[in-house]
Amino acid sequence: MSKQKDSEDLVRVGPETVMGELMRQYWIPAAMSSELGRDGAPMRLMLLGEKLIAFRDSSGRVGVMDHRCPHRCASLFLGRNEENGIRCVYHGWKYDTEGNCVDMPNAPPHQDFKDKVRAKAYKVAERNGLVWVYMGARKKAPPLPAIEASMMPEADLQISLVQRECNWLQALEGDIDTSHFGFLHTGSVQPEDVPEDRLMRWTVTNRAPEYHVTDTNYGTMYCRGRSTASTRARGSRWTIPTRCSSASAGATRRHRCAR
Q1: Contact at 8 Å (CB) between 190 and 198?
Q2: How wide is the angle at C-alpha 59 spanned by C-alphas 57 and 60, nearest 5°?
């Protein structure tokens, strides 16, 4: 039986939390590249409990930073994305994609101190249509994750976004739990209604799969099998902090990345 403290450590991902600090050691998928146009309107982001904005500057660089201007905490979501920076609408202070203050128009030249001001910004990388953000404290970010799907030619990928109103742990449980498929998704489907060459046939023929779990040197692995006329197996892998992939024999592999 887990304790309340264990549960809180698992589900809370904000700054200075146990799981939050762990997840911040990895790159987080944040947005689709197509969502950010050059000099376009900034986009709101919520990553690991932090309210952020994302924008693409005039040169095509992507910035992800705290939505609050460090001057008076006005939201930079309301700012103007112009000439390689995001400009706060309150006093006109402007920041580049790395969070450096590059203009302080409300201060006379002899009182300008923009070189001492910096917005909280995170490291950003793009690959094959996805924007990734590193929110950790390391000066040098780790390499981008070598996820097979994200390294394929962009023309061979289909990227979609789904909003789940739940905690990350609930999403993980749903992704790796495959026994619910025969009830939640196909509970009203009868075996005789499904062609024999469809994988769903095995789900609705035997709704009580057997699970086999083993420990490995990189974590835990499980396989789910259904004993029918022929044995069908399905495996799921979850890689910290956000990736789940699943595949069945003869099925297309699916990768899910959560933010």
Answers
A1: no
A2: 65
Q: Which of 109, 123, 160, 92 is nearest to 25 (CA)?
A: 123
Task: Map residue 212 onto helix, strand or coil.
Answer: strand
**What pLDDT score was predicted for residue 253?**
47
pTM for the predicted model, two decimal places: 0.84
Q: Which amino acid is at 199?
A: L
Instruction: List, in sequence order, the alpha helices (H) in the chain.
Output: 4-11, 18-23, 168-176, 200-205
Instruction: Report, as an integer, the average pLDDT of 170-198.
Output: 87
Beta bridge partners of 247: 235
- How much is the CA Rg of the chain, to the nearest whole Å? 23
Long-range contacts of 94-103 (CB under 8 A, 24+ apart): 95/63, 95/65, 95/69, 95/119, 95/121, 96/57, 96/63, 97/55, 97/57, 97/61, 97/62, 97/63, 97/121, 97/124, 98/63, 99/63, 99/65, 101/70
